[in-house]
Amino acid sequence: MNLVIGSDHGGFEAKEKIKKFLLAQGHSVTDFGCYSLEAVDYPDIALLVGEAVIRREYERGILLDGTGGGMTLAANKVPGVRAVCAYSELTGKYASEHDDANVLCLGGKTVGELILQETVRAWVETPFGGGRHTRRLGKIAEIEKKYSRMPF
Questions:
Q1: pLDDT, tens digit, 9 for 90 and up, residues 19-69
Q2: What is the CATH number for 126?
Q3: What pTM does this model have?
Q4: In angstroms, rounded to a whole number, what is the distance separating the alpha carbons of residues 111 and 128?
Q5: Which amino acids are annotated catalytic?
Q6: What is the distance between the alpha carbons of residues 15 and 19, in angstroms, rounded to a whole number?
Q7: Residue 105, H or E segment
């Protein structure tokens, strides 16, 4: 799979480990930063990764910060991004099977390396289940369309 990955400083160390794990699994991984523990603003990285995914430059994206929450909030502001914060093998699986998540968000400070690997592996290997999930994702897309036209 052709993946793009990014993090803020809180997810940097975990990102480096996940990147090595994915490369060892035979995936292509492009790193959009950050590249050190120096503080950066997570919305900037989430925007870069989200835009690259919706332009179909990459099949999917992975974002890491301290908890996964901030990256999820920011990435989901990009129309067409379906970012899910996952923290276990099961939530990684459901992010693909139920939510067809094209961006996986992880907390680099919330779980250990092995759980991060299991979460990512489950997300990458699990296909979208379709069926009732397609209907639900359609409803989410309608919400996105409705509010993109609102003059707030």
A1: 999 999 999 999 999 999 999 999 999 999 999 999 999 999 999 999 999
A2: 3.40.1400.10
A3: 0.96
A4: 25
A5: 98
A6: 6
A7: strand 103-107
Amino acid at 79: P
Is residue 72 a contact partner of residue 85, using CB atoms and an 8 Å limit?
yes
Under 8 Å between Cβ of 81 and 122: no
Q: What is the pLDDT of residue 131?
A: 95
| Residues 42, 65 contacting (CB under 8 angstroms) | yes
Q: What does 2-65 look like in DSSP terms, one character per residue?
A: EEEEEE-TTTHHHHHHHHHHHHHTT-EEEE-S--SSS---HHHHHHHHHHHHHTTSSSEEEEEE
Instruction: Give me the helix-helix angle, 12-24 and 113-125, nearest 10°.
Output: 50
Looking at per-residue pLDDT, the higher value among 149 and 137 belongs to 137
Q: What does the pLDDT look like over 100-138, one tens digit per residue?
A: 999 999 999 999 999 999 999 999 999 999 999 999 999
Residue 93, Cβ neighbours under 10 Å: how many? 19
User: How many domains is the chain partitioned into structurally?
Assistant: 1
The pLDDT score that the predictor gives to residue 152 is: 64
Which structural domain, as residue segments, surrounds residue 98? 2-148
Distance of CA 78 to the CA centre of its chain: 12
